[in-house]
Amino acid sequence: MSKKADIGLIGLAVMGENLVLNMESKGYTVAVFNRTTEKVDKFVNGRGANKNFIGAHSIKELVDSLEKPRKVMMLVKAGAAVDALIDQVIPHLEEGDIIIDGGNSHYPDSIRRTEYVESKGLLFVGSGVSGGEEGALTGPSLMPGGSPAAWPHIKDIFQNISAKVENGVPCCDWVGEGGAGHFVKMVHNGIEYGDMQIISEAYHIMKEYLGMTHKEMHDVFDEWNKGDLDSYLTEITRDIMAYEEDGEPLVENILDAAGQKGTGKWTGITALDLGVPLTLIGESVFARCLSSQKAERVEAAKVLGSPIKKFEGDKQAFINNIKDALFASKIVSYAQGYVLMNEAAKEFGWDLNYGGIALMWRGGCIIRSVFLNKIKDAFDKNPALPNLLLDSYFTDKVKDAEQGWRNVVGQAVIAGIPVPTFSSALSYYDGYRTEKLPANLLQAQRDYFGAHTYERVDKPRGEFFHTNWTGRGGDTASTTYDV
Question: Which comes out higher in pLDDT, residue 482 or 89?
Fold first, then answer.
């Protein structure tokens, strides 16, 4: 009898193809299926030729070729397609078999699918997969969650194909129940939005305000990539600055209208639902939205003008200021992202390992950087750390960068250069460390026009009061809403 496959995969698009090649290279036999069966034959006879793949032309054929408990992984477009595919796969499985969704699914869908699949006597895993095409082939970051009983059966495969960091530690571990895996992947993507935007703001300032050449910017990003800002996104930005087409920088021929697939938006909406001030990531999403209004911006520039004042002063000192602004904003972004994960863990009953998550992001994924080691260290020291800004390493780093950060935001405002993430991160930092904010006036306003009540500084928390501000109102108070 021919050898059974260790795992099956449905969906031979870019990520699927590369992921199964990765699995096969680690010694696994993989069964593959695609709705368009010609893709199966093309792959098995092409990139997969003479390798340990089993091509299937139906879901039944795929399932029949698998070792028990069967592990069926899906890499298809998020949304209704996943639900439809789950319903097609379930009739062919037996109790204890495992369905794995490796797409960019929204975490509430993974919570619902875990319950649904478990109700059929099966196990479900919703796993974040980060690293793009190259990561899928050579080692991605994997963030699995769902049915805990599934983890022992997929652990070896997932950890073997994942990226590795120092001492061979895999960038993959069990995240938590239900939608925890896809939630952590969503936050990863939100942080990715933020990292990309703060780097883009640094580029904008250097190019338009300092008048730097692409060679000069390449050298700056190259230097930054050797220190605290060492990361995949800094590295590729360096390379982009040096890439030319017909002797000209290709980046300047790319339309300034950014696309998005929705994970950054999901992160922002979730933060609003949970009452978390995720300001930097929110601004990075809005920056993409504004960029997409290209035609309108062109017309607005004609009406409103868009003069950018040129820098005067010590250029190298200001470049160092930009580095400070970039690093401090990055710290704030990750701090906010971790607060969001902490609130979600409380809301959904997840036991998240925050240091472990930093380690999972240390290699393979788009936000991989040396910076993440410091996050792991912070949570190793204090697993209950409420905010990264309160860890001594990050406290000191932000204090060191603060003056340069303020210089950049202030000069950008004067020069007319938009810096939504640099400035929102600074406002969050200032707000977070302000003992008394003007929300007392806000509560007075709410009570004045809507009888929404307020708490008092001279009374215990939890006691609510209402004032008849005009003398024309009554003593009846409205309900209050607390996130």
Answer: 89
Cα torsion 208, 212, 215, 220 to 10°: value is: -100
Buried b or exposed e, range 313-350, using 16+ CB within 10 angstroms: eeeeebbebbbbbbbbbbbbbbbbbbbbbbbbbeebeb
What residue type is 418 in one-letter code?
Answer: P
Q: Give me the half-sphere count of Cα atoms (radius 13 Å) on the Cβ side of residue 281.
A: 32
pLDDT for the residue 2: 65
Check if 192 is active-site. yes
- Rounded Cα distance between 315 and 404, Å, is 13
Across the range 208-233, mean pLDDT stands at 96
- pLDDT tens digits for range 111-134: 999 999 999 999 999 999 998 888
Q: Do the beta carbons of residue 465 and residue 440 sit within 8 Å? A: no
Q: In angstroms, what CA-CA distances link 366 with 130, 338, 464?
A: 7, 17, 47
Q: How far apart are CA 114 and CA 112, in angstroms?
A: 6
Beta-carbon contacts of residue 369 (< 8 Å; ≥ 6 apart): 229, 230, 231, 232, 233, 234, 362
How many Cβ atoms sit within 10 Å of the Cβ of residue 224? 23
Q: Tell me, rounded to whole angstroms, the distance of Cα 206 from its chain centroid.
A: 26
User: Of 39, 71, 185, 207, which residue is the catalytic one?
Assistant: 185
Distance CA 413, CA 405 (A): 13
Q: Which of 192, 201, 208, 283 is catalytic?
A: 192
Is residue 315 annotated as part of the catalytic site, yes or no?
no
Backbone CA torsion sign across 375, 378, 380, 383:
negative
